[in-house]
Queue: 3 jobs
Job 1
Amino acid sequence: MRRAPAAILVVIALAAGVGIGVLAGRVALAPAAAQPSSLANASASAGAGGSPSGSGGSPSDSGLAPSGSPSPSPSPTPVPTPVLVADPLDGVLVAPAVAKRHVIAVMIDDQQDARPQSGLSAASQVWQAPAEGGIPRYVALFSEGDPPAVGPIRSSRLYFIAWAAEWNAVYMHVGGSPQALALLRTSQGAGKAVWNADEIRLGDTYMWRIRTRFAPHNMYSNAKSMRLLVKAVHAPVSVSYQAHWQFAPDAPPEQRPSSGSIRVPYLANVITYAYQPSTNTYLRSVSVEGKQFDAGPMPKVRIAPKNVVVLFMSFAPLNDGSNDGRLEAQYTGTGKAWVFTNGALVKGTWKKKSLTAPTLLLGPDGTPVTLAVGQTFVQVVQIGTGVTYKLGTVPPPSPSPSPSGQPSPSPSPMGMVGDWRLVL
């Protein structure tokens, strides 16, 4: 009686084993597409001992990446942002080495036969003042700009040296007045005030006469020769300058006036400026020729500084024993200054303590005037000169919509929050 149940149990066990074997065979024989992805990856990569068959152990062995997957690309090395600093003469952002370049001052002719001049658009500052015969002259100060041509280069005058001396500039000229040459031949011209770069002494290596104009209105140079000249006069190539004037970015377009004009008369030339709000510049014109262009670059560039400064200064005949009618100027001390920038006018004062001290521009409250970043033209005129101007109007601000999209309520006639009339 006990043997029968035992036999039954053996039969049941055999039947169960056969069923499990059949089921396992179906799973093994199923196509790869029907298997779960984890099983498919394991069956494709597993071999004896759990290592990939035919492999010595690649990174995919650990299961970090499937076999045959592309390796991740290395992250690109970030390019460092170039460090820029403000140029001391005009506030333009430049490389530190450019901001330390030795300033070069060039005397430039303004006689009618010398126009159009070359290089004025590349100068950081341009000073114009009366000279003999009522014909003004320029001294152009080059810092970050590199003119393809500059000229016509003319002779020196003492007050132009004083403005170049504010930067201990390399001073390019062709001869000069006895007063100017007497100073340049002392230690003042050997680096104490400026570095004397006289073409008459140096020859035509760094300055030369062109054939398309008549002397004396045909002496020229260029940026490459100007920079070589710095070494030739033994001036330092790199100088750590401190800015004399204060600069800031342009006023927003909506805060600029619609127009404006300035008229600066000299005996032999009349300078006019037309304010252009779209570029925040003052388009320059001269008498007879009209619109003033720089003849150096090609195509020609319109002269259009960011700032125009008018300095009223005392000029008188220079008693140097000649009959040339040369002038002297009271370039030290203080006087009236009109500063046109961002289409507006600040009426203040200028101050200069000595030959080499900077000419400061101060507002009516005695604080420095802020100029727009970019080129400045300085018009120096005799006290009493009839400089005239017309300022444009600033458009009213557009009303801002309220956050809800509904029009903002009109203010109460009793005042708004913060109005002193609400304080009881």
Job 2
Amino acid sequence: MFVRILPPEVRSRIAAGEVIESPADVVKELLENSLDAKATRIEVEISKGGKRFISVKDNGTGIHPEDIDKVFLEGATSKIETEKDLLSVETYGFRGEALHSIASVSRLRIRSRYFQEMEGWSVYVEAGRLVSKEKVGMPVGTEVQVADLFFNLPARRKFLKREDTERNRVTEVVKEYALARPDVSFSLFSNGREVLSLPKSSFKDRFTYLTGLRPEEILWERGEIRVRAFIVRNVSRGRIYAFVNGRPVGSRSLKEFLRKVLGYKTLAAVFLDLPPFMADFNVHPKKREVKFLKERAVLGAIREALGLKPTLSPEDALAQEVRRYSPEPEIVGQLMDTFIVARIGDYLYFFDQHLLAERISYERTGEEERSCRSSVKAGRKLSRGEMEGLVREWIRLENPHVCPHGRPIYYRVHLKEIYEKVGRTF
């Protein structure tokens, strides 16, 4: 009824290649199908890292009875019809290959009840061949079970990693889609043990739950481009999660650009929203890469957005603690002729004087090498006036967080933390 087999001229325009190389690839494709089916609750279960068994169950709209034995056929999709549709993809999936690719290399069972039907249907497929089809009683939604991945391709199965490695990869995939869609509840079980349980929440709360850290939030919008970012700086192990139009992307060039802007000791989730025609995901079989129309303008928008100070909603502003100190910088001193120590508001900052000077010089000249050579070096004694000048310049920087090479310029501690360490009330 809704599923169609794409004609050859459309299939030929879709990025070719194997979609399924690991259990994580299976989970990714099935999660996308669930989200496209408007699921608000998704449960993932794996056994032996997904090598033995994978189940993805959702409460989405379900598959129409007339389509249940078509969805695993080559080129089957309900998401696009013509080549023109590839230029404005608004769904997670569009290749029409995911279930076919999975079914070809596993023992696959699909159970689904369409939301307008009183009962569901179950099909069992082995190595791409339909074995059985029968009616089943079940709630509205779909469950896809994948057993014995690559059972018919032993050479491919040998390339799978150890169980804990594959499990970690699956966990990361679930985390990425959970970050992208906090309006959906996710759960993950591994060998019968609950690994993740994520109720519906806000973007910030979902980020905090997954990372254990409360981020600063940046909101930026200009024309049809919107950037939203959640950032924690100066962490021991940085990581950048990037999303374009709600889709997790692993684009090396985009992530390298973000690391340059944010710094490699930053944990961040960056969401970029563009008109569909400006982002082409049909450049890689797994849709992990993205090609931008007007790339310079898009990257410029991201750079401008991430250089801004956090934007607070009225509710957040009301919830802020009353400042006891003026936001004007107060120089405390110099530490080991390398760090400028300053109090700004309720924070104590430790600035690397060379990196700070380097960033200031870079924003004046736009030249990395020149800014590095001409900047104040570590180990040089600075006067109070010089320190005050550098910190005041820092406040006006476009990107006050990292040097031109991506290293963090400062480390800061909230005064409340210092007070609490010595048993005093802040």
Job 3
Amino acid sequence: MDWLIEPFRHVFMQHALLAAVLVGVTCAVLGVHVVQRRMAFIGDALAHTTLPGLVIAHLFGWSLSLGGFGAALATGLLIGWASRRHAVKEDAAIGVVFTGMFALGVLLMSRTRSYRDLTHMLFGNVLGVTTEDLWFIGGVAAVVLLCLAIFHKELELTACDPTHAEVIGLRSDRMRFLLLGLLALAVVTGIQTVGVILTNALLITPAATAALLSDRMPWRMLLGALLATACSVAGLTLSYVAETSSGAAIVLCCTAAFMAAYAARSASHRLRPTASIPVTKDKPNKVAMAEEVSRCN
């Protein structure tokens, strides 16, 4: 067991583990809502469109994390505003804002003389997390998880049945903007650890894996958080032993967990006996109709 404990005797590995767990749990719990609303592409867009905010913050000597958050928040608000009246479909709005913001970041980056200070934000540097970074990541995790706990029922209802939510007085667009703001916060902390390119995997993969294992959202959140924690430990350990990228190792562990869950679910479906209900061609199956109505209600 020494090979498992050895990496975490170093202070920088302890910081990396704590940061990875905080980011992984936050992204996994938030990712359940993202997967439920089929918003996976938005997470990827927010991760990439932080680039102009990072470059502007670098040019003026501001905090890179705050610059990335500002750009991600602006992207989320633009996407929500463009698609709120359904005049533009959401995927089209994401594509337009995503490419525009990313192109702006590349243009601004061409004005800088050095790419070195931005490289760790693009590809992640979990091993370089400081104590100040941990306070920032922990604060963001607390804010995101607290908001999700307070507005859990509202977020779930507006995702499953927005029409009913509007009837009882809930504003679906406000809940959507809230989710986009929380996504912006989570994306910035994810960039700190695994970078722009791999942040979306932490948002989607643990949540998608949990969706294969449970149909209830609370259980999905718990399973996603546990999976993110286990993959963070495994990824950091493997990266230390094999001397590879820590962020990539964490995400690959998440991918391996998803593939294992998918294989197990497929095997269980093949082994499960299927009950056939005889249905006549002339008469409707009243039992099946009653079950369908009760399921809808």
